[in-house]
Amino acid sequence: VTVWSSRMALEDINAAGGLPVGDDGESRPLVMVVCNSNEDEHKGVIKRGMSHLADDVRVQSVLATLRPRDLQQAFEDHIAKKIFFLSPISLTSTMTDSQYPNGDLVWNLLGQPSDFAPAYAKLLEHLETYLRKVRSIDDDTPIKVAVVTTDDDFDADLYQFVYPRLRFNGLSSAKNAMDSNLAVVELEAADPDIKAAVDQIIAFNPDIIVSAAGDVMTQGGLIAQVRSFWASTGRPEGERPYYILSPYNAGDLGSLITFIDSLAAPEEFMGISAASAADTTLQNAYASRLRKAHPMVNTDTGNYFDAVYTLAYAMVAAHAPLTGPNIAAAMPSLLEGEPFGTRPDEIEDTLAWLVEPEQTIALSGTLGPPDYDPETGVRAATPAVFCFDRQGIVTLEDQVLRYDREKDEFTGTYPCIQNFAP
To answer: Which of 132, 183, 208, 359 could form a disulfide with 137 if both were Cys (CB 3.0 to 4.6 A apart)?
Structure first.
């Protein structure tokens, strides 16, 4: 899906005549080289692919759909070549730290783990209130929460910010841990011992399981195995744990939806993801076009589409030889100015505007306005909540709630549990 999304944007730009980046403003077609990044199936493929791009093709910029650890390694391996990296997904705090020497050569579209932490805390607050009501748990009886994480860079970073924000039983996470009402289950991402994790969870007997983890929850089968072993203990079905899933899990829901469809209680699962724009005009147009070309595809992938437009326009705004530093220096030219969007019918006007020296634009996309921090290159993510409902079959209800950071509350309607939140 990521390639389909990127290719659709590429075809939009080339159908409009390409980019005016040649000598004397000559337009040239935009070309992409797509490399495999699936390290799980092909060990070393990222290192080989980056060497090909940096040493053989000698690219000046990369749309880097890489896990944070892989992105950092790829950047550091080729730092001397000063390649500009634009990530359509999240970075970790390591690469956005002011002390990290990235030379302003790394930007991203989907925020960082710290963006999601307050929404986790707010969702847990609502879920505790709901469970106490439906399970008749009085305020003096503590509930128990298990947090699952791994040593993967994104998971570890997410856990670092989420854990201290969690508050339940009227107490902090630290106090709940001291009272044995909070347990942390940590796995090795590369070689997770799922059975040991499941045994720890079953023994702890949590009311809620919070995921600050990725594949181990879904592809690793932790959720399915907890469910299976829970039934074998003879504990009442009505005491099964509820789940708050992670932004990483939100991009890997295919197998989970199939599993949930076999269950009687899809309302036990909910999670945090990155929201698209509050104004859904561009997202809806993108989704309609993608679905027409590829029916039944997940259309919550506009970040990959936006990334191509963003990089292409930065190349034009550079007004200089297309080097990594020049492209990076042009990124702020897309943050404030004449309003344009990532849409094919505006490409010619956008390019005509950007070719003029000193002209700037405010480039909105499927994710919303260009809410980047020019100091870090990070586009702040707005957290959203997804859940699962059954209308004959189980369906994903995406972005049903949006987190308002200023008010510390959700807005929207939660359809999967009556009177849940806001």
So the answer is: 132
**Phi–psi pair at 64, nearest 5 degrees:** -100, 90
How many angstroms separate the CA atoms of 67 and 52, rounded? 19
Bridge partners, 245 (sequence order) = 271
pLDDT tens, residue by residue, 88-144: 999 999 988 888 888 799 999 999 999 999 999 999 999 999 999 999 999 999 999
E-strand ranges in 27-143 read 27-28, 61-63, 84-87, 106-108
User: Six-digit token pair at 210?
Assistant: 């919070």
Residue 110's nearest CA partner among 307, 287, 255 is 307
C-alpha distances (whole Å) from 83 to each of 63, 104, 198, 221 are: 11, 10, 43, 38
CB-count exposure of residue 72 (10 Å: 0-12, 13-18, 19+): buried
Sign of CA dihedral 172, 174, 179, 184: positive
Q: Alpha-carbon distance 235 to 204, whole Å?
A: 13
| Interior angle at CA 327, CA 322 and CA 330, nearest 5 | 130
Task: Indicate the helix (H) or strand (E) that contains 247.
Answer: helix 247-250
- What count of residues does the chain have? 422
Q: Report which residue type is found at 123.
A: L
R_g over Cα of the chain:
23
Ramachandran area for residue 200 (φ above 0: left; ψ -120 to 50: alpha; else beta): alpha
Angle between helices 222-232 and 254-261 (to 10 degrees): 20
DSSP per-residue string spanning 344-396 = GGGHHHHHHHHTSTT--EEEEBTTBS--EETTTTEEPPPEEEEEEEEESEEEE
pTM of the full structure? 0.89
Q: Please list the residues that pair with 107 across neighbouring strands.
A: 86
Instruction: Write out the two tokens for 282.
Output: 């561009």
Q: Using 50, 70 and 90 to split pLDDT, how confident is the model at 10?
A: very high
Helix, strand, coil percentages in the chain from 3-state DSSP, rounded to 5: 40, 20, 40
Q: What is the DSSP pairing of strand 338-341 with strand 269-274?
A: unpaired
